[in-house]
Amino acid sequence: MYKYQGTGNDFVIIDNYNSAVKELTTKQIKLICNRHFGIGADGLMLLGNKQGYDFEMIYYNADGNQGTMCGNGGRCLVKFAHHSGIHKSAYRFFAVDGEHEAEIDLDGTVSLKMQNVNKVDYHLNYTIINTGSPHFVKFTENVKEVDVVSTGHDIRYSKSFAEEGINVNFVESTSEGSIFVRTYERGVEDETLSCGTGVTAAALLSAHNENGFNTVDVKTPGGRLSVEFDRINDQCFENIWLSGPAEFVYRVEMDVPE
User: Fold this and answer.
1) Would you please indicate which residues are annotated as catalytic (active-site) residues?
2) Would you say 62 and 33 are in contact if contact means Cβ atoms under 8 Å apart?
């Protein structure tokens, strides 16, 4: 098993390109991701083999359940694929939400193309947007002072969202083209140091150009990311790229009980 992190959003990765791992139970995944009794991570990923693609991304949340798209996870898996000998100028892989493209810059930055967004639900005090995973986005002041765990938990388990769950993002505009984002992630049921799909959601809603090309710099508790995209209108965003660091942490062997 391998540990990778992208702006503090950390993952255990298993190389399953040869399909050696037939199945992991929910209990086993929870144990591996447990920070006291296992390796500790926000999620677990399997790098699989899929015909027509460089690889397949199979993602599980820390609670042991298969998750929706994870942006930082996807970027970390691309870096792992490169370290594992899959060397490409441009990567093409398959995830739960479909096909993705990715590139690794000379400085090690990994850029991941996200799915287009064609629907945004605007409410009086918050916005709902799906960037591969569903996100509740609320703009506020003094994000550092927000009780993300308590407030995020209450929103995620409120009557409107409890059944399917939702990720909750608190966003502060720090300057033109720059924002600060903190996220409560479902499946982790805690604040994470960064959330790639959450950062993407917040950035799309922070476009400084009404239409056309935008780039938004994003600060998270775990580091900095950037999001580039074309804003077509307030409901439609295309050519969305999430960029930032993705780093190898360590390799570990662990006996996982059945």
Assistant:
1) 70, 195
2) yes
The rounded distance, in Å, linking the Cα atoms of 9 and 42 is 7
Taking only the tens place, the pLDDT of each residue in 9-54 is 999 999 999 988 888 999 999 999 999 999 999 999 999 999 999 9
Long-range contacts of 37-43 (CB under 8 A, 24+ apart): 38/254, 39/1, 39/3, 39/12, 39/252, 39/254, 40/10, 41/3, 41/10, 41/11, 41/12, 42/9, 42/10, 42/11, 42/185, 42/188, 42/192, 43/11, 43/12, 43/67, 43/70, 43/73, 43/187, 43/188
Which domains, ranges and CATH numbers included, belong to the chain? 2-105+246-251 (3.10.310.10), 120-244 (3.10.310.10)
DSSP-based three-state secondary structure for 126: coil
Q: How far, in whole angstroms, is CA 43 from its chain's centroid?
A: 10
**What's the 3-state SS for 28-42?**
HHHHHHCCCCCCCCC
- CA dist 200 and 135 (Å) reads 10
